[in-house]
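#lab-general

N.A. 3:47 PM
ok so I finally got the sequence cleaned up, no stray characters, all 423 residues accounted for. can someone with queue access submit it? mine expired

B.Y. 3:52 PM
send it over

N.A. 3:53 PM
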Amino acid sequence: MVTIDLNGEPAVEEETIVNIPTSNPPTVGMSFNFGHEFSEFCHRYAYKEGFEMFVKSNVIKKEYKDKGVSKIGVGDLEARPRMMELIRLKCKKGGVKSSVGSNVTGCKMFVSQKDGELVIVSCDLNHNHPLSPDCSRMMVNYRCIDGPTFDRVMINERGGVSISRNFGTQLIEKGGFDNITFNKKDIRNAIAVERRKTMFEKGDVAGLEEYFKSQRELNGNFYSSIQRDGEGILKNAFWADARSRGTCKYFGDVISFDTTFSSNRYRMPFAPFFGVNHHGKSTIFAAALISHEDTESFVWVFEEWLKCMGKPPKGILTDQDRAICSAIGKVFPGVPHRLCLWHMLQNASRNLGKLVDWKSIDTLIRTAVHDMLDPDEFDEAWCLVMDRYNQRGKGWMQDAYDNRRQWAPAYNRGTFWAGMSST
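B.Y. 4:20 PM
back already:
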């Protein structure tokens, strides 16, 4: 069975956890080696009691922080379990403290690293919800498909059996729901993974190129481009099918470019170009996979847009990313650039949300960006918030205000903010 490693290490293969002997409860002072030993202990205890445990937060050692290691780092700068000073584990159903005076309890554990081992320094085994040991086998951490069952599932899949019928067959063979450790979604995901393995058995980049080639053979208007580095490794990819290119001719005057979507296991953000059609619905014009969110990569993507669509847009909406803004100035000079309102409000919440007066600040910010259409009125409203809540000088509000003046022409500063749209 594939288990979820609480240490963040790759998942390990082992026999179904049903056959693992029950474990003693965690106590302060227990120590474990990194990797499988600690993960196995946590899974055994949680499975026996009937709940799921996960890593709630962790603290990186200062010596690694100083080297640039972070939770979103890549390669040598990626945070590893051995670099953690403190790890906090928590029950998935433990709840959160949502209000002052809330008496939320839940299984939680603090683990510290000492002399190369993980040591439990604090432990609370109380729960504020019912435990379900009889249902542990169907919890996300413990659901699994054994080898023989998986082989039969794939045989049925190659024979053209639908997923629903495939699952029903396994259900009958095992004698009912009480004897299975997976659901229909697990069958669907397992088949999807196997399909991807078959598609990309020659390598992910080669598989992507073959897919692009097959799409061009189906329709000559399919556009694609792949950028590699000096060693032949994929850097960026851009593509647009015939339907999207045709749609762009009618609705591509104003486009939105967003890099905040999920990344794959290579941590390459999916970056779509999209707009709004005559029904007021979002529509995709093109998409890209980007290895690095820097100016060079965005310049390449925007240049491919020009090659694909034949002309620049009349307006573009993005988030508040300096690399994107720089690339737009180089590839789309003179094209009006506006910031997405949704991203701006998210950034405001992220940067100012911990302030005591955040609710009042949030109300005033929303009033400024939604209601103040005149540039002078907007300036006055924004500056009023900065002055009233001591946000002048350094800080997100001042930076956002300065960026508005830097990026927007003097005659168009008002619409740089008041004309922002939600994407």
